Amino acid sequence: MRAQFVMSEIGVGLRRNLTMTFAVIISVALSLALFGGSLLMRDQVSKMKGYWYDKVNVSIYLCNKSDAEDNSESGSKACAKGAVTPDQKQQIETDLKKMELVETVHYESSDEAYKHYKERFGHTALASVVTPDQMPESFRVKLKQPEKYQVITTAFAGRDGVQSVEDQHQELDNLFTMLGYLNLAALGIMLIMLIVALLLIVNTVRVSAFSRRRETGIMRLVGASSFYIQVPFIMEAAFAGLVGGVFACVMLGAGQYFVIDHGASLRTKMELINFIGWDSVLTKLPLVLVIGVLMPSLAAFIALRKYLKV
């Protein structure tokens, strides 16, 4: 009988405040969708870091004759002592292989560099005037711990025979920093939506409690406990939050299916990016649903303590 009464009270409350309940559902759904999207964005950035940092190399470009001539005219100290000598080249390779941080060392000759350049930029006008002797020799270094690429830069930058030390991690760091800012922006919008949802929940509970003040007064007179009187209001908020959480899960699933996986999606258009899969999405959905239920319930409980005199 008590369960039937509670369910009937929940139905009455939802019908009386249908518009506000709908607003709560939409606000909760949007805020939780942004919350889930932020978690997925964090997973995506972490996956991209692990994927790309494992593939990029640190390149040590060696001085050639044209570098020495150009730098002597410009006053640059790099390659001031001329092109790299065979002894310097051998010493650099030996020092690289001695470092525990280094996994592999690949030497690229000028001819190989020219071949790779033609493969990538052969369609440009500049490629027709570039000659093999203008391409620098280099060592391509793969690290066991890619995040420690600065150790190589510190050890070899400015060394005799070394033109420059370049690591592709710096470009990736800029990309991941930008993605991090976008994630923070999404979290900021999520917090604003969350505050709006909480205010709507509090107002909805206040209106519902005021509209049923006569019933709650009678229940107090017959000895009903505070918890028993509060349960219908808390359950109304929890139900609205659950529906909003379900909508948020649908939006996250739809985003994964239509934006990343299905048809002409990002996965087919941007093959170089290792996108997250359904395993990441499915692990976030239970958390979204739990927060969708607990957040409105807690807000309703706090509001009832202040506005419902029991």
Can you describe what's shown?
The chain is 69% helix and 8% strand. It has 310 residues and is α+β, with helices and mostly antiparallel strands. It has 2 domains: 3-52 and 173-308, no CATH class; 56-167, Alpha-Beta Plaits (2-Layer Sandwich), CATH 3.30.70. A 4-stranded antiparallel sheet has the order 2-3-1-4. Helix 2 crosses helix 9. The chain starts with a helix and ends with a helix.
Task: Please describe the structure with a list of short key phrases separated by commas or semicolons.
elongated; four-stranded antiparallel β-sheet; alpha+beta; 310 residues; Alpha-Beta Plaits
Give the topology, please.
Blueprint: H1 2-16, H2 18-53, E1 58-62, H3 65-74, H4 86-98, E2 102-108, H5 110-121, E3 138-143, H6 150-156, E4 162-167, H7 169-211, H8 213-221, H9 226-261, H10 266-269, H11 278-307
Antiparallel strand pairs: 1-3, 1-4, 2-3
Helix pairs in contact: 1-9, 2-7, 2-9, 2-11, 7-11, 9-11
Function: Part of the ABC transporter FtsEX involved in cellular division.
Transmembrane segments: 21-41, 181-205, 241-260, 281-304
Main location: membrane
